[in-house]
Amino acid sequence: MPITRQVKNIMVPIKEYPVVDEGATVLEAVMRLRDSFHKMDGTWYGFQSLMVLNEKGELTGILTLRSLLVALRQREFIEHILNGDPTGLFFTPHLIKDTKITVGKIMRPINLVTVQEDDTIMEALLKIIKYKINSLPVLSGTMPVGVVRTIDLFWFVGELLE
Amino acid sequence: MVTRKTAEQIMVPIGDYNTIPEKSTVYEAIQVLRESFHRDGQAWYGHRSVIAVNKEGEPTGILSLRGILQAAGLRELEEDPDLKADSWGWLYIKKLREEARLSVRDIMQPLRLAEVRANDDLTDVARALLKNKVNSLSVFKSGRVVGIVRTMDILMAMDGYFS
After folding, report:
1. Residues B89/B75, Cβ–Cβ less than 8 Å
2. Residue span of the structural domain in which B99 resides
3. Does the distance separating the beta carbons of A129 and B70 come in below 8 Å?
């Protein structure tokens, strides 16, 4: 019965998901994502987010393509100021400290929105729509075990209408 | 010296996408979309959006997975935050079946909503994507849509922008 199917049946297991360290810079995170991308017929395909690990190897957040783009734009702005206007340095000391924007500062903390692996797919769908996200961490109790994405849910929704 | 890439150089050509007449039902769009991508292990290949075309065959909108999922049930959710997943689930399916009869035109993102020009550079494209809060932008050249740019395309093109 499709409506009672559990998240664990459609999620991507954590060990198959790309990961990055909290301390990595935005550029390093982009490189990590690029490594996971494939090009087919001229178009890029791949995972659209990364799971984030702290120093102890614990999963602490999720980093999306969009937040990377925001951070890169911020950094470009900073570099523009630094390169174009030396006197600007006097007015932007707080920006200079952050020229190395790290993953930990821009990720979505893992506990902000999660779903349990035994929850129904409907629960995951509700959260993805309500919180306007595309990747949702899946926990077993408090332990991250996977990620469920819009695309995984879409497939299920297609089945519902058959 | 870095050569600035343009929207046209990084976009997905419009011809790559499956199309659907804008008067088709959402149900038909779901079938077309399901046919356009497939799973190989954990990776999905194929486009996650379909391009809506008018009677003259001209592209008029883009319909994404998210657009379809959001169409149904969202209003109920906004009106009653205490709605439990179980009851919401059945309501959602019911709404989805009703809305599956809506036309693509009713729920698509019009191509004119968030656009860039073919020779806009990467910075302009990134700014447009963030400003419009969308996941895809249409690329126009001489008044016609020539392609679509996604967040991924911008990130993949950022080679050499930062040393």
Report:
1. no
2. 7-156
3. yes
Dist CA B32 CA A75 (whole Å) = 40
What is the domain count for chain B? Answer: 1
Let me know: does B6 contact B123? Beta carbons within 8 Å: no
Which residue type does B75 have? Answer: R
Tens of pLDDT, residues B86-126: 666 666 767 767 767 788 998 899 999 999 999 999 888 98
- Residue B16 inside a domain? The answer is yes
- ipTM associated with this complex: 0.76
CATH number at residue A90: 3.10.580.10
Total-model pTM: 0.81
Query: What DSSP element (H or E) covers A41?
Result: none
CB distance from A155 to chain B under 8 Å? yes
Q: Which of B62, B71, B79, B67 is nearest to B98 (CA)?
A: B71
- Using a 10 angstrom Cβ sphere, with 0-12 exposed, 13-18 middle and 19 or more buried, the burial of residue A51 is buried
CATH number at residue B35: 3.10.580.10
Residues 43-72 of chain A whose Cβ lies under 8 A from any Cβ of chain B: 43-48, 65-66, 68-70, 72
CB atoms within 10 A of CB A145: 18
User: Between chains, do A69 and B69 touch, taking CB under 8 Å as contact?
Assistant: no
Write the DSSP symbol of residue B84.
Answer: -
Q: What is the distance between the alpha carbons of residues B53 and B66, in angstroms, rounded to a whole number?
A: 19
Q: Is residue B161 part of a domain?
A: no
Take residue B125 and report the two structure tokens written for it: 């494209």
